[in-house]
From TrEMBL, chain A:
Main location: membrane
Keyword Transmembrane: yes
Family recorded in the similarity comment: Belongs to the binding-protein-dependent transport system permease family. LivHM subfamily.
Protein name: Branched-chain amino acid ABC transporter permease LivH
Transmembrane regions: 12-35, 42-62, 68-87, 150-170, 199-219, 225-246, 253-271, 277-296
Domain of life: Bacteria
TrEMBL record, chain B:
Keyword Signal: yes
Keyword Signal among UniProt keywords: yes
Signal sequence, start to end: 1-24
Protein name according to UniProt: Branched-chain amino acid ABC transporter substrate-binding protein
UniProt-listed InterPro entries: Leu-bd (IPR028081), Leu_Ile_Val-bd (IPR000709), Peripla_BP_I (IPR028082)
């Protein structure tokens, strides 16, 4: 019993991080119908910025954990957001009216550029950040115990907060209304006076910021990263976005949670060798039953 | 028209350049992961080979010819290993190769070297398959995973007296091979592992796996793989409150293991099989001192790489720079190296393996367990 509960905790934290990154895929797809393959690498860049931010803050003599974490979050989210803006500007905007395939290739190119740029500028070695937050809460369950580290609690709290704020922004604010309008019909929205280019830029920045939240949290928790770390997690987050219904914001969060939980439960209770096989089989199954994902809307052919 | 002439001249110049290069020097490739997640090991191989070549050149080179090293980066990717092996053979004109590092790279590359008649001495690839292929040109100056697995398993049974062993591997040639070797010996001792599972190279979250390790109540966790996965694994193991002893092989022998684990406290008590301390060989003392004088600590595979270069140089020197005859010569002759006298068997393995147990401490250093 304690083991199952512990696996649920593991899966929830992993899944909430997948969800955060999946948001970037799903929002970009929703608004311009392309898959931003460079998104995993934006996450990777944020891991490096996290390490640099921590080093900077400690260099200036700041030692209290709350200030370091808030400062790191702020710096990383801001800088990674800027990366998102620049990437959209140079790799996607010039191709705005070309076919979807050109944009896709441009995205793959951007992904390679980011990887190689980080490899050349930061070195190819594994990097590590020291542990900042230790300790855990333990609950006794039967003979065993279920434990959740403070770091994992922080991950859950910040990702839920991030998702909550984002949902509020999209549902309730003027910016969110503009995003939704652009998503529904870009041409009509621009006729009605919405600067759609600006909205698309904003969506890229928001996606990168969410990836940066995940980047800070994971880097602080696992401590290790290299220039290639965005690849696997990017694929997983993309899977989560498709699972939940690509284009749907709650779908990305739900997809992330389902993927994280299924991985943890399968690896923990059956076999870790085949956990990815299981996750992707689950994806295939869901897509057979619901081709547009769990919460996705079926694409309507416009006549 | 003029363009064609220029191009032709350039090509003939390049050919002439390559030819003079091959005539003037003995080209030896140093193949390993010089970039990528395992670049720390490529660095170790390069430092050792570079120093050995410099020392040999300072003493007149190989029969008067200077050694020229060529760096070949395989990034521990089998596909890339094949293409750099072809490059070393075809365009660089290498007579011999020190490398590769990862067994999964060494095995496909070794066949290319055999076809081309190039001598290959690996300082680090420990997979039994490498020399079991029956290739005449392949030698190694490190042990084999079955020997390493023996040492690990007997330590687990005899010294630790552990009954509940969880075996984890990274599904790669080296990692799974080592885990299987250890498992085989453990089973021969009558200890059945309580868990045997693989993880995915490149992932960082192993919490689900670790909860499972906790649930089977393992005393010892044996990991076959490299430091980039071993670091997060041992850290998350400790974070989940497990006190199981963590043991691994020579894939974690790098300072990076400590930084990847997050802090030295996590690697405290980690056990690792690796060749006996090279500084214990009298012949190696001056070499080690040479490295330290330059402000560089020859950790991990540095001295192995140095030794591999010495073996290559001895074989080429005794056979008038003929790598095929050199490979034959190594069958019957032993070589005095920085790590003592090395003698090879028919397969190209060392006749004596020197695996011993090391323990990492809370300062992030490893020392031999007596």
């Amino acid at each position: 019993m304690d083991i199952v509960l512990q696996q649920l905790v593991n899966g929830l934290t992993l899944g909430s991080v997948y969800g955060l990154i999946a948001i970037g895929y799903t929002m970009v797809y929703g608004i311009i119908g392309m898959i931003n393959f460079a998104h995993g690498d934006v996450y990777m860049v944020s891991a490096y910025i996290t390490a640099i931010a921590i080093a900077l803050l400690t260099f200036f003599g700041i030692e209290s954990f709350p200030i370091i974490i808030i400062g790191t979050l702020f710096l990383t989210v801001a800088v990674t957001g800027a990366y998102g803006w620049v990437i959209e500007r140079i790799a996607y905007r010039p191709l705005r009216n070309s076919s979807r395939l050109s944009v896709l290739i441009s995205a793959i190119g951007m992904s390679l550029i980011l990887q190689n740029y980080v490899q050349l500028s930061q070195g190819a070695n594994q990097q590590g950040v020291p542990t900042l937050l230790t300790g855990a809460i333990r609950f006794t369950v039967g003979d065993g115990f279920v434990q959740i580290t403070y770091m994992k609690l922080l991950i859950l709290f910040i990702s839920l907060l991030g998702m909550g704020v984002l949902t509020y922004v999209i549902q309730k604010t003027k910016l969110g209304r503009m995003c939704r309008a652009t998503q529904q019909d870009r041409k009509m929205a621009s006729i009605l006076g919405i600067d759609t280019d600006k909205v698309i830029s904003t969506v890229f920045v928001i996606g990168a910021m969410m990836a940066a939240l995940a980047g800070v949290l994971i880097t602080l928790d696992y401590g290790a990263f290299d220039f290639y770390v965005g690849f696997i997690i990017g694929i997983k987050a993309f899977t989560a976005a498709v699972l939940g219904g690509i284009g749907s914001l709650p779908g990305a969060m739900l997809g992330g949670l389902i993927l994280g939980l299924s991985e943890a439960l399968f690896a923990g209770l059956i076999s870790s060798d085949y956990k990815d096989v299981f996750s992707f089989s689950l994806l295939v199954l869901i897509l057979i039953v619901r081709p547009s994902g769990l919460l996705g809307k079926p694409e309507v052919e416009k006549v | 028209m003029s363009n064609v002439i220029v191009r032709k001249t350039l090509i003939s110049l390049a050919i002439a350049g390559a030819a003079t290069l091959a005539q003037a020097d003995v080209v030896i490739g140093v193949a390993g992961p010089h970039t990528g997640a395992y670049a720390a090991f490529g660095e170790q191989l390069w430092k050792g080979a570079e120093q050995a070549a410099a020392d040999i050149n300072a003493n007149g080179g190989i029969n008067g010819e200077m050694i020229e090293l060529v760096k070949a980066d395989d990034a521990c990717e089998p596909k890339q290993a094949v293409s750099v092996a072809n490059r070393l053979v075809d365009s660089d004109g290498a007579l011999a190769v020190v490398g590769h590092f990862c067994s999964s790279s060494s095995i496909p590359a070794s066949r290319i070297y055999e076809e081309a008649g190039v001598l290959m001495v690996t300082p680090a690839s420990t997979s039994p398959t490498l020399t079991d292929q029956g290739l005449s040109n392949v030698y190694r100056v490190c042990g084999r995973d079955d020997q390493q697995g023996d040492v690990a398993a007997s330590y687990i049974v005899d010294t630790l007296g552990a009954k509940r062993v969880a075996i984890i591997h990274d599904k790669d040639t080296y990692g799974k091979g080592l885990a299987d070797a250890t498992k085989a010996t453990l089973n021969a001792y009558g200890v059945k592992e309580v868990m045997y599972e693989g993880l995915t190279r490149g992932e960082k979250d192993f919490n689900a796996l670790i909860t499972k390790i906790r649930s089977v109540d393992a005393d010892v966790v044996y990991f076959g793989g490299l430091h980039s996965e071993a670091g997060p694994l041992v850290r998350q193991l400790r974070e989940q409150g497990s006190k199981a002893i963590f043991m691994s092989g020579d894939g974690i022998v790098s300072d990076e293991f400590v930084s990847v684990a997050g802090s030295p406290e996590y690697v405290d008590g980690v056990l690792m099989t690796f060749g006996a301390d090279p500084t214990s060989y009298p012949a190696g003392k001056t070499v080690v001192q040479g490295f330290r004088d330059k402000g560089f600590e020859p950790e991990g595979y540095v001295l192995y790489s140095y030794t591999a270069m010495q073996v290559v140089a001895a074989a080429l020197s005794a056979n008038d720079l003929d790598p095929v005859k050199g490979a034959e010569w190594l069958q019957t002759n032993s070589v005095d190296t920085a790590m003592g006298k090395k003698t090879f068997d028919d397969k190209g393995d060392l006749t004596v393996s020197d695996y011993v147990m090391y323990e990492w401490d809370a300062k992030g250093k490893y020392t031999q367990v007596n």
